[in-house]
TrEMBL record:
SUPFAM superfamilies: P-loop containing nucleoside triphosphate hydrolases (SSF52540). InterPro entries: AAA+_ATPase, ABC_transporter-like_ATP-bd, ABC_transporter_ATP-bind, P-loop_NTPase. It comes from Ancylobacter mangrovi. GO terms for molecular function: ATP binding; ATP hydrolysis activity. Keywords: ATP-binding, Nucleotide-binding, Transport. The keyword Repeat does not apply. This is ABC transporter ATP-binding protein. The lineage of its organism: Bacteria, Pseudomonadati, Pseudomonadota, Alphaproteobacteria, Hyphomicrobiales. The keyword ATP-binding applies. Residues 4-235 form the ABC transporter domain. Belongs to the ABC transporter superfamily.
């Protein structure tokens, strides 16, 4: 079965006269290891779709399943990177990247016992994104692009099966942004996690993704998700 499957999923916010359909009749299927992008204008329901895929929001209609099982709550094995995700200024880049490990492994003693392995993991990730040797720097010592690369490393440190990217490069200048597309693609080719990217930028979607879903705004805020199969720019 596909890793993630949405069947005729809809999501309405609010009750009664306040009720508003944010997503209507969305059907999509994501395979393990696939790179999917979701493109659409502001307010079309992209973030809502992300929350449905990760089980943070139960659908009002239809069905979401992950690994063949209906989703009933937040799913495991997900890493997330956002446009505004900030690194903690009082922690080094390496310690920022290792932060999610403190959440998945709250047992202090085990965390200490595995520290050497976790540091090695963080260093390997930093090297993959061209930040080898920058682990000891503090976030404010890094450029915007370098901070976003660190954010992606932080999202991958617990080796999630699914990486959710919500406008991860949105705040960057055009040059840095395109530089990060190449880095992101190399990282995905190396590690083969399943990626779901939300973006306004169709070029970014086409550059990175195997499948691009285009979300359109419709009267009554009903939004349909359509697949567009595009030839892969890589290889
Ligand atoms: P996008 O991420 O594409 O900008 P969203 O999924 O954030 O779109 O929002 C889709 C629509 O649902 C928007 O009109 C937004 O205002 C509305 N919306 C989003 N979150 C909520 C919420 N928690 N309560 C009510 N309306 C919401
Ligand atoms: P990015 O493209 O990641 O935003 P910049 O264009 O700001 O980076 O910087 C170009 C290069 O300069 C970086 O890839 C990095 O090698 C170097 N650099 C930037 N900031 C620093 C810093 N604080 N310390 C050391 N080198 C840096």
């Amino acid at each position: 079965p596909p890793l993630v499957e949405l069947k005729n999923v809809s999501l309405a916010y609010g009750e009664g006269s306040e009720r508003m359909l944010a997503l209507g009749d969305a059907t999509m299927s994501i395979d393990d290891g696939e790179f999917v992008a979701v493109v659409g204008p502001s307010g079309c329901g992209k973030s809502t779709l992300m929350k449905l895929v990760t089980g943070l929001l139960p659908p009002t209609g239809g069905e979401v399943s992950v690994r063949g099982q209906p989703v009933t709550g937040p799913i495991k094995g997900v890493g997330m990177a956002f446009q505004n995700a900030t690194l903690m200024p009082w922690r080094t880049t390496r310690d920022n990247i290792m932060l999610p490990l403190e959440v998945v492994e709250p047992h202090k003693r085990r965390l200490r016992a595995n520290r050497a392995e976790y540091i090695a993991r963080a260093e390997a990730l930093l090297a993959s994104v061209g930040l080898g040797g920058f682990g000891d720097k503090f976030p404010w010592q890094l450029s915007g692009g370098m901070q976003q690369r660190s954010n992606v490393c932080r999202a991958l440190i617990h080796e999630p099966q699914i990486l959710m990217l919500d406008e991860p490069f949105g705040a960057l200048d055009a040059f840095t942004r395109e530089e990060l597309w190449g880095i992101m693609q190399a990282l995905w080719l190396e590690r083969r996690f399943t990626a779901v990217l939300v973006t306004h930028d169709l070029r970014e979607a086409v550059y990175l993704a195997d499948t691009v879903y285009v979300m359109s705004r419709r009267p009554g805020r009903i939004v349909k998700v359509r697949t567009v199969d595009l030839p892969r720019p890589r290889t």
